[in-house]
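Hey, resending since the last one bounced:
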Amino acid sequence: MSGLLNGKVALVTGGGKGLGAGIARRMAREGARIVIAELDAEAGEETAAAISRDCGVETLAVATDVSDKAKVEAAVAAAVARFGGLDTLVNNAAMLSPNIVLEAKTDEMLARTLGVCLWGSWWGMQAALPHFRARGGGTVVNFYSIDAETGAWLHADYNIAKSALLGLTRSAAVEWGRFNIRVNAIAPTGLGTVFAQLVRDVPGFLEMATATNPLGWAGDPEADIGPAVVFLASEMSRFITGEMIHVDGGQNLPGYSSKPADLLAVGAKP
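The structure tokens again:
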């Protein structure tokens, strides 16, 4: 590693598992001190300990439900209290509600999905702002999704939240540029928590899922997704803001079919 993030402090939401854990590890390998804000407190502690052991950097785990404003603010405060400041916020935490059609989704499902995928990022950015300004600048990496681009079946509430998050990314990039704060987004496709579980549980799922991917493989959280986040958090991207980068092996080019074979099974009415 080349030490692109030496001296930096990064907070990664949902950093205890899947994509978030891989991203946190890659940032640590580039020298960043890491704060893992994770709903699953045990997973967060285990990942933080492993990163500290393997990468030789200080790491802090904070049990955090990003749909709770006070918990998000507490995670940012804990990062600053432990490490003296904050340089990067990675808004990775996300959730999916049950896979059912739009007309069967409930207000509660939408509210919960917005709470995790949108409000958590909003609160984190607002809480991080004064600490970024105290450092003379900072970086935010938000997470968009190919699902929102394709209008993926059964993910209406998730697609709404991700679409709004892209608007937040661009608005913050425009307004916070005056503070030397860069705000970008990535749309990753990789072996996150849900994807990896499907690979383990469903024979042939990996081959099916990567059949139309131009590069032909599923992205590894640390080796494939992490470097994009490192780039956006580092001085290598000092003149880039308001962008959305696909980190998906080209999957966005052919897209994918998400229409379920049995609509009745997912709540559609005849």
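The radius of gyration is 18 Å.

Sorry for the duplicate.
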